[in-house]
Design a protein that fits this description.
The complex is a heterodimer of chains A (237) and B (254). Chain A has one domain: Rossmann fold (3-Layer(aba) Sandwich). Chain A is 37% helix and 24% strand. Chain A contains 8 helices and 10 strands. In chain A, strand 4 and strand 5 form a beta hairpin. In chain A, helix 4 packs parallel to helix 5. Chain A is globular, with a radius of gyration of 18 Å. The termini of chain A are far apart. Chain B has a domain of 160 residues: MetI-like fold (Orthogonal Bundle), CATH 1.10.3720.10. Chain B has 13 helices and no strands. In chain B, helix 3 packs parallel to helix 7 and helix 3 crosses helix 12. The longest helix of chain B is centred in the first third of the chain and has 38 residues. Chain B is globular and about 65 Å long. The model of chain B has no long low-confidence stretch (mean pLDDT 92). Classes of the chains: A alpha/beta (237), B mainly alpha (254). Chain A: It is an enzyme of class 7 (translocase). Chain A: This is Molybdate/tungstate import ATP-binding protein WtpC. Chain A: Belongs to the ABC transporter superfamily. Sulfate/tungstate importer (TC 3.A.1.6) family. Chain A: It comes from Ignicoccus pacificus DSM 13166.
């Protein structure tokens, strides 16, 4: 569970304000908004990379507002997946456990189990540079899930994928839905509606409260629907 | 396109011709002369040892101090950052003899020179002076090359490591540093090459113990071209061997 209260982050020429944001245990909450509205600032803020001017971030009952990123229990999957090119896929996934000084046998067992679950077992010895976009995403997800995070933070995880791979990626995210608290940042309304238990809309640095997807679609994302209608009528659908 | 190739080839030949001419101009009898003369032989061997010893220590100092400052410059914004960048670039544009005078004034005379002498680090005509000069002239090459490497690391690579449990230092050592391995090797080659080729500043700060570059100059002025040529050849071969070895380590092509 993650709860954000009265959070203000000030950067040069930009202020992020979050009055109240909550993702309950194992809930899948979407942060939706156009580019440049402050989604990434929110991600980096709750992950601990930007210092807030005020406010509180609570994860599973613990105030983490001023804790460093490594002590928050948040795992990030960034837009470009952030795989480390000097390590194999296995080493990428094992790294968070090695940092925690888990013994090698247990690391091997955990990596194997997760790799089987995400269907990447055959990729373990490969270099990240030899992976396709979809494979890279699976590996990034496995690396994040290996620590059993309290919150999984997905920052535009499918935006660098082609449409076919994106569909498979959505299936993968559906698969993990319900097993971990997810905060998923996207500008794609389809992704938001397919995955989100709740959707919070980010607009000019202000994050609204997470709401029921249908309510958000009707009241706050109607312009997307209008655009889609207009586009489909243009091509005669 | 042909004109471009012709112009480019001219430059390549301009560099290649002296290299070939140097190799074919060496008279093997000069080597015999040096080998049979105890004084000349020990001077040459001493210069080889000094060159490698001083340049190895200088590179070590540059790695220990240069890699951290390259990382800080790449990652942090702070007051006077532009000033620090300019200071680190300065040795590239300062004439060599001027650099020698500066090092001499700063670390040989005055209060700092006194302190250094008290701890047995007299830089005048000692290997410490040679090392100081090599660190001074090599710094911009190492720092700038390594910094370019840090600049090219996607921010996400470090953010992910931190979020998954790595501290700042673990992230630096296990993620960032291995990702700039090639830049560190390239920077090392460039700084090393710059260091061993230095003459101007060494003539002022530490003429002795002579490095190979200083010995080329010394023998050219005292014994003539043939003797200078034999040291030149040795230096060329050693430089090429080290260059090839480091490039191999780097995993790049020649």
């Amino acid at each position: 569970m993650i709860k954000v209260e009265d959070l203000v982050i000030e950067l040069k020429g930009f202020t992020l304000k979050v009055e109240e944001f909550e993702a309950k245990r194992n809930e899948y909450v979407i942060i939706m908004g156009a580019s440049g509205t402050g989604k990434s600032v929110f991600v980096e803020g709750i992950a601990g990379f930007l210092k807030p001017k005020r406010g509180r971030i609570v994860i599973d009952g613990k105030d983490v507002t001023y804790l460093p990123p490594e002590k928050r229990g948040i795992a990030i999957v960034p837009q470009d997946h952030g795989l480390w090119p000097h390590m194999s896929v296995y080493e990428n996934i094992a790294f968070p456990l090695r940092i925690r000084k888990v013994n090698e046998n247990e690391i091997r067992r955990n990596v194997k189990e997760l790799a089987e679950r995400l269907n990447i077992e055959h990729l373990l010895n490969r270099s990240p540079s030899k992976l396709s976009g979809g494979e890279r995403q699976r590996v990034a997800l496995a690396r994040a899930l290996i620590i059993r995070p309290q919150v999984l933070l997905l920052d535009e995880p499918t935006s660098s994928l082609d449409p076919k791979t994106r569909k498979a990626a959505l299936e993968l995210l559906k698969m993990i839905k319900g097993s971990v608290t997810v905060v998923h940042v996207t500008h794609n309304p389809y992704e938001a509606l397919v995955l989100g238990d709740k959707i919070a809309v980010m607009n000019r640095g202000r994050l609204g409260r997470p709401k029921d997807p249908r309510e958000v679609l009707l009241n706050e994302l109607s312009y997307y629907v209008d655009e889609i209608r207009e586009a489909t009528s243009l091509i005669g659908l | 396109m042909k004109a471009l190739v012709a112009l480019g080839t001219t430059l390549v030949l301009f560099i290649l011709v002296p290299l070939i001419v140097t190799f074919i101009s060496v008279n093997p009898k000069t080597f015999e002369g040096i080998y049979s003369n105890d004084y000349l032989r020990s001077q040459l061997l001493g210069a080889i040892v000094t060159t490698f010893e001083a340049s190895a220590i200088a590179i070590l100092i540059l790695l220990i101090t240069g890699v951290p400052i390259a990382y800080v410059l790449s990652r942090k914004d702070f007051p006077l950052k532009n000033f620090v960048e300019s200071v680190l670039d300065l040795p590239m544009v300062i004439p060599h003899s001027v650099a020698g005078i500066m090092i001499l004034l700063a670390y040989a005379s005055g209060p700092l020179g006194g302190v250094l002498r008290q701890i047995s680090l007299n830089i005048v005509d000692s290997i410490y002076g040679t090392i100081a000069v090599m660190v001074f002239v090599g710094a911009p090459f190492l720092v700038n090359t390594v910094r370019r490497g840090f600049d090219s690391i996607p921010r996400s690579a470090e953010l992910v490591a931190r979020s998954l449990g790595a501290s700042k230092y673990q992230t630096f050592l296990k993620i960032s540093l291995p990702m700039v391995k090639r830049n560190i090797l390239t920077g090392t080659i460039l700084a090393w090459a710059r260091g061993i080729s230095e003459v101007g500043a060494l003539l002022i700060v530490a003429y002795n113990p002579m490095t190979l570059s200083v010995l080329v100059y010394d023998w050219y002025t005292t014994l003539g071209l043939n003797y200078a040529l034999s040291v030149t050849l040795i230096m060329l071969i050693l430089s090429i061997v080290v260059f090839i070895a480091l490039r191999r380590l780097e995993g790049g092509e020649l």
